[in-house]
Design brief:
single chain, 752 residues, mainly alpha, Clc chloride channel, 4 domains, three-stranded parallel beta sheet, three-stranded mixed beta sheet, disordered N terminus, nucleotide-binding, chloride, transmembrane
Length: 752
C-alpha cells in the first residue's frame, strides 16, 4: 500500500522538451502524425461544446491558408529585394548612373533620347573610365575598366564569404540537398533560422553580383524555406509538430522556385518531384497558393526586371519540324554527358576540399576562384554580362531591329513578311559571336565545377542552363547555315526551301538549356513545365520533353545520382531515396544490432531499475532510445523510450518531485510493484513510453524493411523472434546496408 501512496506519475502534464528531438537526429513520422490526429480529434470534439471552441476550430482549419499567404508575401518580397539589388550591383562593376547612383544601367537609360540601337549608350550612364578619365576610348580606359571590374568582383565575394563564415555557416551553398534531407525528417538546428535567412539574403546578392558562375535560384528555395520555418512559430500546430512543419516547408520550397523562375506550377511540381518526402493532397493546393502569392508579390515589387511572370519570354515565328528532333536529341545527349561529367568532377573536388588542407581556407578559395573568373570573363562580352542576360540573348529570335552580333546576318529582306526573316548567310558578327560563345562555353563548363559548393550562396540552375543554351545556340546556327547552303539536300527538301524561315537557333538554345539542367538535376516533368513557364513557349513542350528525357537516360546510364543526391551522400546525411529499388536477398537478422560479436542489446526493464541505473545507461551510451522489456531474462518487449525524453523527465523529477533520489525505482507500467514503506518514491514514466513501437521478425526480408522505413518514415524498428526482443534496426543501419550492397563506403553515413 505504501508503495502505492508514494508513487506519482510526474508526466501527467507534458513537460517542455519531452517529445522533441536532438540536433542531427531523425523525427518519428508515425508519432508526429498520431499526435496531430489526436490534437485534431480533440479540437473537433470541443467545437460542439461552445461557440468559442467552434471559432477556435475554424481558425485552426484556416491557419494553414493564412500561413501560406504570409510565406508567399515574405518570400516574394525578399526575392524582389534580392533581384533589384543584384541587378544594380552587377552593373556597378562596369559603371554608375549620374542621374542617380541607385539606378542600374537599364533603369538609368529609360528616359534617354538615344536611338533603339544605341539604347545601352545613353549619356546618363558612365563607365568607370569615363567617370575617372573623362573618356572611354583607348587602351588605358580599357585597362581601367578591366581593373575596376575585377576589384568590385573581389570586394563583393570577399564580403560574402566573410559574412557567411562569421555569422551563418549554414548560409553557404545551394541549400537544396539539406532541405531535401530536412523534409525527409532530419533535424538540422539553425539551418532554417533567422540568422541564416538574413545572411543568406545579403550574401546571395553579393555572390551573384560578383560575377561568379552561380545562380540565385537554388538559394531562393532555401530563403523561402527559412521564411516558412520562421513563420511556423506563429501557429501552435506547426510549431509543436515536426511532421506538420514539413508540410509547410514543402509549400515554401514551391514558393521559392516560383519566385526564382516566375513558375508557380513548375514550383509545385519541383517540390513534389525533387525535394518533398511527404506530400499529401492538401499540401499540393496550399503549395500552389503560396507559389502564386509569391510570384505576384515579386512582380508587384519589381515589375520591369527579370521578375516578370515570364522570365525569358520567347516569340518564335516558325513551328519546329519533326526532323529537328534529331538535333534536339543530340542536345539531350550533350546535356546528359555534361551532367554526369559535372557531378563526378564537382563531387571529386568537394571531397578533396573536405579531406585536404584546402578546406581550411574557404576565404582564400573564394578569392582565387573569383579572381580567375573575373579576369577570364571581362574580355568576352558573353561572359562579362550577367548569366540571366546571356540566356535571354541566346533564347532570342532575331528580328529586324535586333542589334546583337548574334543577329548580324547578310541582309536580304526581299522575302520578309512582317517580323518573319528568312534563313540568311551568317555575317562577320555571327562568326565572331560563335567563337566568343565557344570560349564562353569552355570557361563555364570548367569554372562552374569549382564554384558550386564554395562557402558562398551558390545555385546551379542558371549556370547549367547557360551551358546548355550556349551549346544549343551554336548547334542551332550550324543547322541554320547547313539548311541555307544545302537546302536541296533530302533532309531539308519539302520543308526548308531557299528563302524560308525554317530553323530557329533560339529554340535550340532553349532546348539545350533544358537538357543540361535535366542532366545535372535529373528532373523531367517539373523541368519541362518550368521551361514552359520561363519562356511562354507552350508549343515547344515536345522538343523540351525529348531533350529532358534523353539527358536523364544518358546521365543515369553513367551515374544514378543527381547533383543534390550526390551532395547528400557526400555529407553523410541519412536520406532514404524513395525512387531506388532494393532487390538484394538479405534478412532483418543480417542488419540488426547487436551482431554476434557485439555486446548484448542495451535495454531498460519496466519496473526494476533505479534512477541511478537508468542514468548510468544514458551516460555510458549514445543511443537515441532504448527498448523497455519485462525483464532481462524474458526479454519480452513492452515498448520504446527516447533518450531525450528520459533525460528531461528525470532531471525535472529530481527538481520538482519530493522523494526522487538515485535509489528511486522507475516504473513504466500502470501498476508498479509494492515496495517496503521505507523505500523512496517511485518515478512513474509510463506517459513517455511508446507502447506500440514498430517491430519485425528476424526473418523479414530487408526489401520489406527498407520499404517500411521509406513509406512510414521510421527512425528505428525492433527485431523480435517469437515475441522475444533480439535487436534493433535504425535508419542509419538501413542506409549503411544499402551502401554496402551497392559497393559503397557504409561509413559515409554519418548521422542517424
Amino acid at each position: 500500500m505504501n508503495g502505492r501512496t508514494t508513487m506519482m506519475d510526474f508526466l501527467e502534464e507534458p513537460l517542455p522538451g519531452v517529445g522533441t528531438y536532438e540536433d542531427f537526429n531523425t523525427i518519428d513520422w508515425v508519432r508526429e502524425k498520431s499526435r496531430d490526429r489526436d490534437r485534431h480529434r480533440e479540437i473537433t470534439n470541443r467545437s460542439k461544446e461552445s461557440t468559442w471552441a467552434l471559432l477556435h476550430s475554424v481558425s485552426d482549419a484556416f491557419s494553414g491558408w493564412l500561413l501560406m499567404l504570409l510565406i508567399g508575401l515574405l518570400a516574394g518580397s525578399l526575392a524582389g529585394l534580392i533581384d533589384i539589388s543584384a541587378h544594380w550591383m552587377t552593373d556597378l562593376k562596369e559603371g554608375v548612373c549620374l542621374a542617380g547612383f541607385w539606378f542600374n544601367h537599364e533603369h538609368c537609360c529609360w528616359k534617354s533620347n538615344t536611338t533603339f540601337t544605341d539604347r545601352d549608350k545613353c549619356p546618363e550612364w558612365k563607365s568607370w573610365s569615363q567617370l575617372i578619365l573623362g573618356h572611354g576610348e583607348g587602351a588605358f580606359a580599357y585597362i581601367l575598366n578591366y581593373f575596376m571590374y575585377v576589384i568590385w568582383a573581389l570586394m563583393f565575394s570577399l564580403l560574402a564569404v566573410l559574412l557567411v563564415k562569421g555569422f551563418a555557416p549554414y548560409a553557404c551553398g545551394s541549400g537544396i540537398p539539406e532541405i531535401k534531407t530536412i523534409l525527409s525528417g532530419f533535424i538540422i538546428r539553425g539551418y532554417l533560422g533567422k540568422w541564416t535567412l538574413v545572411i543568406k539574403t545579403i550574401t546571395l546578392v553579393l555572390a551573384v553580383s560578383s560575377g561568379l558562375s552561380l545562380g540565385k535560384e537554388g538559394p531562393l528555395v532555401h530563403v523561402a524555406c527559412c521564411c516558412g520555418n520562421i513563420l511556423c512559430h506563429l501557429f501552435t500546430k506547426y510549431r509543436k509538430n515536426e511532421a506538420k512543419r514539413r508540410e509547410v516547408l514543402s509549400a515554401a520550397a514551391a514558393a521559392g522556385v516560383s519566385v526564382a523562375f516566375g513558375a508557380p506550377i513548375g514550383g509545385v511540381l519541383f517540390s513534389l518531384e525533387e525535394v518533398s518526402y511527404y506530400f499529401p493532397l492538401k499540401t499540393l493546393w496550399r503549395s500552389f497558393f503560396a507559389a502564386l502569392v509569391a510570384a505576384f508579390t515579386l512582380r508587384s515589387i519589381n515589375p520591369f526586371g527579370n521578375s516578370r511572370l515570364v522570365l525569358f519570354y520567347v516569340e518564335f515565328h516558325m513551328p519546329w519540324h519533326l526532323l529537328e528532333l534529331v538535333p534536339f536529341v543530340l542536345l539531350g545527349i550533350f546535356g546528359g554527358l555534361w551532367g554526369a561529367f559535372f557531378i563526378r568532377s564537382n563531387i571529386a573536388w568537394c571531397r578533396r576540399r573536405k579531406t585536404t588542407r584546402l578546406g581550411k581556407y574557404p576565404v582564400l578559395e573564394v578569392i582565387v576562384v573569383t579572381a580567375i573568373t573575373a579576369i577570364l570573363a571581362f574580355p568576352n562580352e558573353y561572359t562579362r554580362m550577367s548569366t540571366s542576360e546571356l540566356i535571354s540573348e541566346l533564347f532570342n529570335d532575331c528580328g529586324i531591329l535586333d542589334s546583337s552580333k548574334l543577329c548580324e546576318y547578310v541582309n536580304d529582306f526581299n522575302s520578309t513578311k512582317g517580323d518573319d526573316l528568312p534563313d540568311r548567310a551568317a555575317g562577320p558578327g555571327v562568326y565572331t559571336a560563335m567563337w566568343q560563345l565557344a570560349l564562353a562555353l569552355i570557361m563555364k563548363v570548367f569554372i562552374t565545377i569549382f564554384t558550386f559548393g564554395m562557402k558562398v550562396p551558390s545555385g546551379l540552375f542558371i549556370p547549367s542552363m547557360a551551358v546548355g543554351a550556349i551549346a544549343g545556340r551554336l548547334l542551332g546556327v550550324a543547322v541554320e547555315q547547313l539548311a541555307f547552303y544545302h537546302h536541296d539536300w533530302a533532309i531539308f527538301s519539302g520543308w526548308c526551301s531557299q528563302g524560308a524561315d525554317c530553323i530557329t537557333p533560339g529554340l535550340y538554345a532553349m532546348v539545350g538549356a533544358a537538357a543540361c539542367l535535366g542532366g545535372v538535376t535529373r528532373m523531367t516533368v517539373s523541368l519541362v513545365v518550368i521551361m514552359f513557364e520561363l519562356t511562354g513557349g507552350l508549343e515547344y513542350i515536345v522538343p523540351l520533353m525529348a531533350a529532358a528525357m534523353t539527358s536523364k537516360w544518358v546521365a543515369d546510364a553513367i551515374g544514378r545520382e543527381g547533383i543534390y543526391d550526390a551532395h547528400i551522400r557526400l555529407n553523410g546525411y541519412p536520406f532514404l531515396e524513395a525512387k531506388e529499388e532494393f532487390s538484394h536477398k538479405t534478412r532483418a537478422m543480417d542488419v540488426m544490432r547487436p551482431r554476434k560479436s557485439d555486446p548484448p542489446l542495451t535495454v531498460i526493464t519496466q519496473d526494476t531499475m533505479t534512477v541511478e541505473d537508468v542514468e548510468t545507461i544514458v551516460t555510458s551510451t549514445t543511443y537515441s532510445g532504448y527498448p523497455v522489456v519485462v525483464s532481462r531474462v524474458s526479454q519480452r518487449l513492452v515498448g520504446f523510450v527516447l533518450r531525450r525524453d528520459l533525460i528531461i523527465s528525470i532531471e525535472n523529477a529530481r527538481k520538482k518531485q519530493d522523494g526522487i533520489v538515485s535509489t528511486s525505482v522507475i516504473c513504466f507500467t500502470d501498476y508498479c510493484p509494492l515496495l517496503p514503506p521505507s523505500s523512496p518514491s517511485v518515478l512513474k514514466l509510463r506517459s513517455i513510453l511508446d507502447l506500440s513501437p514498430f517491430t519485425v521478425t528476424d526473418e523479414t526480408p530487408m526489401e520489406i524493411v527498407v520499404d517500411i522505413f521509406r513509406k512510414l518514415g521510421l527512425r528505428q524498428c525492433l527485431v523480435t523472434h517469437n515475441g522475444k526482443l533480439l535487436g534493433i534496426i535504425t535508419k542509419k543501419d538501413v542506409l549503411k546496408h544499402i551502401a554496402q550492397m551497392a559497393n559503397q563506403d557504409p561509413d559515409s553515413i554519418l548521422f542517424n
